């Protein structure tokens, strides 16, 4: 599958989410899709997209065979739906996990379990762990990856690979060597300042003595 842009991922994530959470309002009109894209809850990062920005994204997703437009004489406006299950064979549980990862970024297994519990299909064998295993191993290419646990993190996190390899790396934690080096530098500077102050005091004493002799 072609690597998707952040905008394409946001559109697909919203379509999957709304299909599961508000099936009576699905497929989505462009206005409803925009509201889902720009909502501030359950989104990371929060974005503010316009209709002019989303329309070409939808057009490209349709070209890729990942989304379709729904025409109906009873609809005043065209509506949109995803077809990831048809194009790539994803199960409902796999779609749920990918949607949460696409909309909220890397997650722990517990976070994924909490945030997909209302999605249909999560009763699949193995739960979230089973879904992640299948997304990593069942297909010709992996769709998720387990990220290395960094200092301060209690659990490993999982990320999707729909936008290519995960590149985000947290800044390195300060090391003991750096802390020791900084302390040594501060001590050295303090010693230099003390020496300069002593030299200034000696010069002042010499100057006062010279003035006394001249007077």
| Series of H and E elements | HEHHEEHHEHHEEH
Structural class: mainly alpha
Distance between the termini: 95 Å
Contiguous low-pLDDT stretches (5 residues minimum) are 168-180
Number of individual domains? 2
C-alpha geometry: elongated
CATH class of the largest domain: Mainly Alpha
Radius of gyration: 30 Å
By DSSP, the count of extended strands is 6
The CATH architecture of the largest domain comes to: Orthogonal Bundle
Task: Kindly report the name of the CATH homologous superfamily of the largest domain.
Answer: Winged helix-like DNA-binding domain superfamily/Winged helix DNA-binding domain
Q: Tally the helices: what do you get?
A: 8
* Portion in beta strands: 5-15%
- What level of helicity do the residues show? 40-55%
> What's the arrangement of strands in the largest beta sheet?
1-3-2
Report what the structure shows.
There is one protein chain. The protein has helices spanning about 5-20, 30-40, 50-65, 85-90, 90-105, 110-115, 125-135, 175-215, and strands spanning about 30, 65-70, 80, 105-110, 145, 155-160. The protein is mostly helical and about 220 residues long. The chain folds into two domains: about 5-160, Arc Repressor Mutant, subunit A (Orthogonal Bundle); about 175-215. Strands 1-3-2 form a three-stranded antiparallel β-sheet. A three-stranded antiparallel β-sheet has the order 4-6-5. Helix 1 (about 5-20) packs across helix 5 (about 90-105). The longest helix has about 40 residues, at about 175-215. It is elongated and about 110 Å long. The N and C termini lie far apart (about 95 Å).
């Amino acid at each position: 599958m072609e690597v998707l842009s952040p905008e394409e991922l946001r559109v697909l994530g919203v379509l999957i989410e709304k299909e599961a959470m508000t099936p009576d309002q699905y497929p989505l009109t462009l206005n409803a899709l925009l509201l889902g894209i720009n909502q501030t809850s359950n989104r990371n990062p929060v974005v503010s997209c316009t209709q002019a920005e989303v329309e070409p994204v939808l057009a490209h997703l349709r070209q890729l065979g990942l989304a379709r437009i729904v025409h109906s004489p009873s609809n005043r406006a065209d509506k949109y739906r995803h077809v990831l299950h048809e194009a790539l064979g994803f199960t409902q549980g796999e779609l749920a996990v990918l949607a949460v990862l696409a909309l909220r970024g890397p997650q722990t297994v517990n976070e994924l379990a909490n945030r997909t519990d209302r999605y249909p299909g999560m009763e699949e064998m193995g739960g979230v762990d089973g879904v992640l295993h299948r997304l990593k191993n069942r297909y010709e290419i992996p769709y998720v990856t387990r990220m290395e646990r960094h200092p301060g993190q209690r659990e490993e996190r999982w990320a999707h690979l729909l936008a290519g390899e995960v590149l985000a790396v947290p800044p390195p934690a300060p090391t003991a060597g750096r802390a020791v080096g900084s302390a040594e530098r501060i001590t050295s500077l303090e010693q230099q300042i003390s020496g300069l102050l002593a030299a200034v005091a000696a010069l002042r004493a010499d100057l006062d003595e010279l003035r006394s002799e001249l007077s």
